[in-house]
Amino acid sequence: MNSSADIQAILALADGTIFRGVSIGSRGHRVGEVVFNTAMTGYQEILTDPSYARQLVTLTYPHIGNTGTNSEDSESGNTHKIWAEGLIIRDATMATSSFRNTESLTDYLTRNDTVAIADIDTRKLTRILRDKGAQHGCIMTASEGSAITPDDEQKAIELAKGFAGLSGMDLAKECCNPDGFEWTEGTWELSDTLLNRDVEGSFDTGTGGFFKQLGKHIDEKYNVVAYDFGTKTNILRMLVDRGCRVTVVPAETPIADVLAMNPDGIFLSNGPGDPAACTYAIDNVRHIIENTDVPTFGICLGHQLVGLASGANTMKMKTGHHGANHPVQDVEAGTVMITSQNHGFAVDEATLPDNVKSTHRSLFDGTNQGIELTNKPVFSFQGHPEASPGPHDCAPLFDRFITLMEAAKTAQA
Ligand SMILES: NC(=O)CC[C@H](N)C(=O)O
């Protein structure tokens, strides 16, 4: 909603298209790859998903911010960092309403130094991205006390053209937590009794507050080492729910160090950038496949790394998949799952070696969505079984990882 007090902002695409709107975040400019996400909910999870690093995300759902933000819906762990390079929306809500809200979306964006633009025609933008593929872009806000000038527009187009593009970019080592950490929280659900949030508005992990944690009561049966390439937090929560003690290690941790921890299973996380550029990670996964029998599960970037380490290629997609309603078929069973997706690269199925089976395919465009090795307990999935946001149809993939670890333990006993 425009008012004379609004700060002008523009989105410039590298092809010269300019969208004019208003700033709803911090001032400045940011460049990145412009992608559209079709999920109707989950703007906070999307903003905090590390896989969106260097991407300017437009949400096709028009009205954003209604329920505000809170400290629980972060996908970037305890840092709560916004990883998306910028946000592009149609309509920022004027009133925030939710009992879980602690901060409006606009305040949240500003506090996190995120540049964001509203009041633009996101349908037109999405059509451009659909027709031409993901575009390089620049969001720029007017500087203090002035309006956007024709010079600003020209500069924004040049900045968009100057973005190097995600192909060849290794962002995993930059976006992981460099210190590693133990993750102990499971998923949560609203508690039966609704009590007040404490004065700090902090997350009450007990059973008496807004939320009760699931999974905490389960004994830690499986020692899982999770390679962090920019992991989403809900993946770690879902592992904890299933009885895993989760040790998260940075992307470049040598595989020898991981194996020295004697893991029951190795998890390969999602993450931003081009998987083929993460050569150290590909080497580590190749080592797992060729020299060990440790059950291994990869999600999204982790899936692509399994593909690359087994000898397949990955390719850049036209627009990629970003949404919460993507149908994926289980190749063997023929069943269809509605899945959450966020990727711009894909494993090229035509290049899969003989010992790697395609297990899942996208019903939107036929691209590969899952693989498994026929000679090792290693499998991976392109979509997001942890959802956040999105449907939970493929959550049983986590159980499959547990089954593999259990089988390996039984075989060893
Ligand atoms: N969510 C992810 O892990 C994304 C993987 C990779 N960066 C891609 O865009 O395809």
UniProtKB/TrEMBL annotation:
Annotated metabolic or biological route of this protein: Amino-acid biosynthesis; L-arginine biosynthesis; carbamoyl phosphate from bicarbonate: step 1/1; Pyrimidine metabolism; UMP biosynthesis via de novo pathway; (S)-dihydroorotate from bicarbonate: step 1/3
One family name in Pfam for this protein: CPSase_sm_chain
Active-site residues, as the UniProt record annotates them: 300, 384, 386
Region (CPSase): 1-222
Presence of the UniProt keyword Secreted in the record: no
Residues engaged in binding L-glutamine: 51, 271, 273, 301, 304, 342, 344-345
Statement: the UniProt record of this protein carries the keyword Cytoplasm: no
Swiss-Prot/TrEMBL catalytic activity: L-glutamine + H2O = L-glutamate + NH4(+); hydrogencarbonate + L-glutamine + 2 ATP + H2O = carbamoyl phosphate + L-glutamate + 2 ADP + phosphate + 2 H(+)
EC number(s) stated in the UniProt entry for this protein: 6.3.5.5
UniProt cross-references to InterPro entries, sorted A to Z: Anth_synth/Amidotransfase, CarbamoylP_synth_ssu, CarbamoylP_synth_ssu_N, CarbP_synth_ssu_N_sf, Class_I_gatase-like, CPSase_GATase1, GATASE
Alphabetical list of CDD domains matching this protein: GATase1_CPSase (cd01744)
Keyword terms of this UniProt record: Amino-acid biosynthesis, Arginine biosynthesis, ATP-binding, Glutamine amidotransferase, Ligase, Nucleotide-binding, Pyrimidine biosynthesis
Domain (Carbamoyl-phosphate synthase small subunit N-terminal) ranges: 7-140
Xref: NCBIfam families: CPSaseIIsmall (TIGR01368), PRK12838.1 (NF009475)
Family: Belongs to the CarA family.
Function field: Small subunit of the glutamine-dependent carbamoyl phosphate synthetase (CPSase). CPSase catalyzes the formation of carbamoyl phosphate from the ammonia moiety of glutamine, carbonate, and phosphate donated by ATP, constituting the first step of 2 biosynthetic pathways, one leading to arginine and/or urea and the other to pyrimidine nucleotides. The small subunit (glutamine amidotransferase) binds and cleaves glutamine to supply the large subunit with the substrate ammonia.
Quaternary structure note: Composed of two chains; the small (or glutamine) chain promotes the hydrolysis of glutamine to ammonia, which is used by the large (or ammonia) chain to synthesize carbamoyl phosphate. Tetramer of heterodimers (alpha,beta)4.
Protein name, UniProt field: Carbamoyl phosphate synthase small chain
Species name: Psychrobacter aestuarii
